[in-house]
Amino acid sequence: MVELSTGIAGAYCTKMLSDAGADVVKVEPPRGDPLRLWSASGARIEPGSDGALFTFLAGGKSGVLADPGIGADLGAVHALLRTADAVVWSRGSAVAEHPSLHPEQIRRTHPHLTVTAITPFGLDGPWSDRPATEFTVQAWSGGIIGLGRGAPDRAPVHIGGRVGEWLTGATAAAAVLASRARTLVTGDGELVDVSMLETQVLSLTYHPVSFFEGLGRPFRTERRLTVPGVATAQDGLVALGCGTAQQWFDLCVMVGHPEWIDEDSPLSITEQANKMAPEIRAWIAERTTEEILDLASALRIPNGPVGNGGNVTGFDQYRSRGSFTVNPRGDFVQPGRPYRIEPGTLPDPQPSPALGEHTHDCRRRSETPRPVRDRAPSGAGSRSVRPFGGLRVLDMTSFWAGPSCTHALAMLGADVIHLESASRPDGTRLIAGVPVSEDDWWEKSPIFSGLNTGKRSLALDFRTERGREVLRRLIATCDVIVENYTPRVLDQLGLDFGTVRALRPDAILVRMPGFGLDGPWRDNPAFAYVIEDSAGLSWLTGHPDQNPVEPYSVGDPNAGVHALVGLLVALEQRRRTGVGALVEAPMVDAALNIAAEQVIEYSAYGTILQRDGNRGPVAAPQNLYRTDELDEFGRPDCWVAVAVETDEQWLFLRSALGDPGWAADPELGTAAGRRRHHDLLDEQLARWCRGRTADEIVGVLWDAGVPVAKVMQPHRQTEIPQLAHRGFFEELDHPVFGRARHSTMAARFSEAPAVVHTRRAPLLGEHNREILAELGLDDREIAELEDDGVLGRTPVW
Question: Prior bond to 636 cis, omega within 30?
Fold first, then answer.
């Protein structure tokens, strides 16, 4: 692989592939990647050394210098591309910006390559060249205000730590591996166009368009703090959550108020918890974190400690599992790989390259003839080929993390069988707020629909012996099995990896427990928010004078895309060896990886990174500013996001504002000066924005070259012209809740079919007879299973 990128997204993409064994050559301009000099806390990087984050992201790669203004250097880059399988590209360096190295030109010059481009909005469309930062893209995605994050008397808060960059990097890594699977069939390369906006829509919002169009109302209409969420105990912070009604009932018992339990309450559990918030927080404040966590674990209430860069490496679970390791440089700590594969040998962490360290060796290597690849003759492919056509997947997952992993496989052509039962339907069927008095209420969840298009449904009660017999027969026909139960569930079924391998020797079993298959937290219930708390993602989200705020969305899809990368690595290993594998991809390991900068910064420089509202370490000014409007719910809760990353963008902002006198201070001409005077900048920008609408502000600033965004309500994503241009939403007709648009993927594959969704999401048990007939069961046997309740189509409580 050749890396022509700067920033976190491209570097994390290629790091994930390097960690899986890819030979990655990082090409830098003469001054090197700016990440070499980066520290989020502003720590001084000594001359001749590299920043710790760069060292982490560049581990195991080769380093090459090239000046695109020198013909020989440019020729050497193209020589590297001729011998490569894939290239990852993003804007920002003199090398990547050379016209001959634009992704579409690379694709024309080197048609064998998988060319993966990472940009804020995609390579084409009305916004393709618009200025943006991760912060402003969050605002456009609907992720800042979408799940009601933050107290209603303050500005909403973005998710800290530049999560959009990390998520986009992981998405790009999965896209590279998917494209390679197709290339091995067709012999042709392709252009893979990865959009950060689309990544954040999928990762920071909860299928809001499908929800709005399917049910005629937004998922959430107001902002409020999560209760209990992150709360102050006697000796520190603790995190508790209720993802189901049973967990709310158990919390009521735990805090000494069983009389709060009302199974017929017209209020949702979120509304009930908010109503009782003062009493719940008072109970927490009187107890130690250890006492609260022990009680919550005993009652199976989702819980966890609140991690940050300074304490997270000491948590018992991570120490027990060896979740962190010392970087090969020896002076800081980093998280381990987000998945584990058995059997299989993945490389140990390797040092990062010094600037230009491998230039001579790589140039010499690129002069050798390109090896013959084990792929079909060029021209054998067509746009009708999906990468995973013919792959059969048993999807034993529920809620969001697991289904998002298998959903990607379904959209890319796999035959995915979603396993539920009438007594235990997928949890996302139950969280749409549809009254159980309505006919077919379990079929009216647009969230389930959004995560399960392209799949088939088998509703099989595998708690029965006959159900387990059918399940074993099904496993024997599947290439991949994915599950995200707590570890004890498969243990009780006797379906460990040894059993699966006996049924199908080359099967890949992907297990996605919350905290891992071993360790003291092994059986703790793991919902996204608890994962975010325990990994440190919550720590950087919120205002500095308040407790951290849970992102409440990232933990699940982040786990899904990291598990997908591990699964695709295992498929490549199987292709080479014929051997199946166990892939362990805990949700928390994925979260620890995208929160890596906190641990790295603390262990390298002794600084605990802190949340700072909507400010951040990259841009100044960076904040949300209220506009002169009421939102669609009649509240003064409309905002714009503004971020200035460069001195040039500051000049653009000054000009757009009419060069006011306060902006003439020469100190404001530097990033350090703007950071020192951030309060002044916020005051002036807030005053300027207050008398304008969001559309007016965006029109003035964006046209001037300033990164800016409306803070979008997520159910209005279809109003974004860039998403419309790229066909990000596809309309499907559901037999119960009707027509609704569904999001697709954050990557566009140039050689893929134009339509992503091949079929709507299935009704519960819709394909029972079809799937069992494929296993060789006749009509009489299937009818007996139906009569005995082993198969079902309607929930049974």
Answer: no
Q: What is the DSSP letter of 369?
A: P
Amino acid at 468: R
- HEC string for 663-679: HHCHHHHCHHHHHHCHH
Distances from the Cα of 641 to the Cα of 137, 224, 285, 626, 700, angstroms: 9, 20, 35, 9, 13
Q: Which two tokens stand for residue 511?
A: 């297990």
Residue type, position 677, single letter: H
**DSSP-derived secondary structure letter, 166:** H
Q: What count of residues does the chain have?
A: 797
pLDDT for 369 equals 61
Residue 742, SS3 per DSSP: strand
Mean local confidence (pLDDT), 96-123? 97
Residue type, 622: Q
The residue with tokens 């070499």 is: 36
Task: Give pLDDT tens digits for 60-95.
Answer: 999 999 999 999 999 999 999 999 999 999 999 999
Give the per-residue pLDDT at 746.
Answer: 98
Q: What is the DSSP letter of 440?
A: T
Cα 43 to the center of its chain, rounded Å: 28
Here the tokens at position 400 are 């969001």
Q: Which residues contact 626 (CB under 8 A, 6 or more apart)?
A: 155, 636, 638, 639, 686, 689, 690
Give start and end residues of each alpha helix (H) in 216-268: 245-254
pTM value > 0.85: yes
Tokens 């994050």 -> residue: 149
What's the rounded Cα separation, in Å, for the pair 285 and 584?
A: 37
CB atoms within 10 A of CB 630: 11
Could you tell me which of 576, 570, 580 has the C-alpha nearest to residue 405?
570
Beta strand 324-326 with 333-335 is antiparallel
Residue environment code for 694-728, b if the CB has 16+ CB neighbours within 10 A, otherwise e: beebbebbbebbbbbbbbbbbbebeebebbeebeb
Q: What is the helix (H) or strand (E) element at residue 102, kind and residue range?
A: none
Please write the tens of the pLDDT for every residue from 437-482: 899 999 999 999 999 999 999 999 998 999 999 999 999 999 999 9
| CA distance linking residue 117 with residue 102, whole number of Å | 9
pLDDT > 90 fraction of the chain, expressed in percent and rounded = 86
Q: How far apart are CA 698 and CA 684, in angstroms?
A: 17
